[in-house]
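Q: Here's a chain of 93 amino acids. Please give me its 3D structure as tokens.
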Amino acid sequence: MRMEIKNPASLLFPPLISLLIITSNLISTTDGHDFTIEEASIEEIQRAFTENRLTSRQLVDFYLDRIEELNPLLRSVVEVNPDARDQADVADR
């Protein structure tokens, strides 16, 4: 997915950017700990991929949904790759 940052000030809000990560309420449990994408670190996301608890398509769908939801307020994303979902499907295969 290709994004262009229109407002550099948006880079000052990494927690908000990290919120732009999978389909709402994606939760799974490993070792007694719940995994929710909204609170996941990069390491936890990579582990979820490895353990087949998360797909590229789910991750892309989450980002696209969050962009659609937040961009009217933030106005930071100018363009997304229209092929992002297809590319995620290829990555999952």
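Q: Can you summarize the key feature?
A: The chain has one domain: 8-92.
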